[in-house]
Design brief:
The complex is a heterodimer of chains A (233) and B (241).
Chain A (H helix, E strand, L loop, with lengths): L8 H10 L10 H8 L15 H6 L4 H24 L9 H23 L1 H7 L1 H4 L5 H9 L6 H31 L1 E2 L2 E2 L3 H5 L11 H18 L8
Antiparallel strand pairs in A: 1-2
Helix pairs in contact in A: 2-9, 4-5, 4-8, 4-9, 5-6, 5-8, 9-11
Chain B lengths: L5 H45 L10 H7 E7 L16 H4 L9 E8 L2 E11 L4 E8 L6 E8 L13 H5 L17 E3 L12 E3 L5 H15 L3 H7 L8
Parallel strand pairs in B: 6-7
Antiparallel strand pairs in B: 1-2, 2-3, 3-4, 4-5
Helix pairs in contact in B: 1-2
The chains are: A mainly alpha (233), B alpha+beta (241).
Amino acid sequence: MAENKNLTKKEDLILFLSDTDEREGLLGKKNRKLLSDPLTDNNPITVQVLGICSALAITVKLEPAIVMSLAVMAVMAFSNMIISLLRNLIPSRIRIIVQLVVVAALVILVDQILKAYAYDVSKQLSVFVGLIITNCIVMGRLEAFALGNGVYKSFLDGIGNAAGYAFILILVAFFREFLGFGKLLGYQIIPDSWYEAGYSNNGLMLLSPMALITVGLIIWVQRSRSRQLIEQN
Amino acid sequence: MDRNSNAYTFLFVVLLIAVVASALALTATSLQPEQAENVKNEKMQNILGTVGIEVARDSAQIPFDKYIVERIALDNNGQEKKDVNAFEVDLKKELKKNVEEQAFPLYIADIEGSKYYIVPLRGKGLWDAIWGYVALKDDVNTIKGAVFDHKAETPGLGGEITQMWFKKAFDDEKILDESGNFVGVSVVKGYQGGDNKDDNAVDAISGATITGDGVTDMISERLINYLPYFKNNTNVKVAFN
């Protein structure tokens, strides 16, 4: 950081907030990439294989999957921002503990708000809200991105990665609720006449293994479309 | 200040904890009324659920006032405790007291002329507390319906006690055996009874033996304290020791 010594306070602040070495708009090319990459070629679930545990636990129905996604998004965006704000102040020896404290505090906040305003959903999610703390995506992004990047970029990175997570979660929940219950968001989609004609819901879709198999199928589709993701060996 | 010094690290932690703790305390206190309202409405919804009245949580108050005609707190001799508000009794606290000092809440429902006795339950599951409500018909023997809930049972295993299929199994079960002795309802592994409603037993959930035993225990341990009241206040003969 020696070259920064001659900067004025204002320049210092700009550098601190945006960490920008290039001049670009709020949603310039690089910033857009922060949002879009995790949705496709750098998806936290299908490419980095993080956050799998919650992907199988709460994807039986669409509604909890959507709420879980929003909760993870709020936690990731704000924890990324807070850690990025503090990144030059955090003593490096205890940085993991500091990250944990920040994430845990945000998770408790989310949990309290759900209990007050979305009680049924909070009961459905039960222990899994608390387990956002241990979601590897959250800690992974703090360690890999927020500690070394500006506040705004970290915010985008948090939103982007949570959106990538949400996208897969909702996709899996869509197939599981549709095939397992014949419903979407609790509304019956498959008409009664189909059931009378002998169609029946696939109870296997409701069991955890089918979440992983669905994720596996999504990974298969993704890799056959973008070949650069396939490992050479 | 040197960022790697112990003093800086210590100061940083203290400040961080102070900020985080006050932020959390503030939120918890300010959201408390809404949360308490949810819990109260859910309690009324659960009590109504045992007698077959399904209502949305937010609109539980009106049917609750209409159908639940009596809410009384009893002691373990069946005498009414006039100074205790039955609905406010917290079983979590009561269970820590001696049985002589506990208050036993009882809700009496009147639905189109039929009388039901609704007893709150609370006990231990595998990980944490489990609780529920059981409604008895006016023979104080046959179960009208039951609901169960839990704090932290494993989703998909012990957590299944909240499911309709598990609750339904208790409908029409008896809490007295053939000679009129109190036995409760047991949750039995490898249950072979099918639809038999006179064997004081229901089928357990695979992989949730301890939660099931918890349900068995809380039914017998809680209900036995209401028998003196039933003996004195109904014309049904209840034999118990």
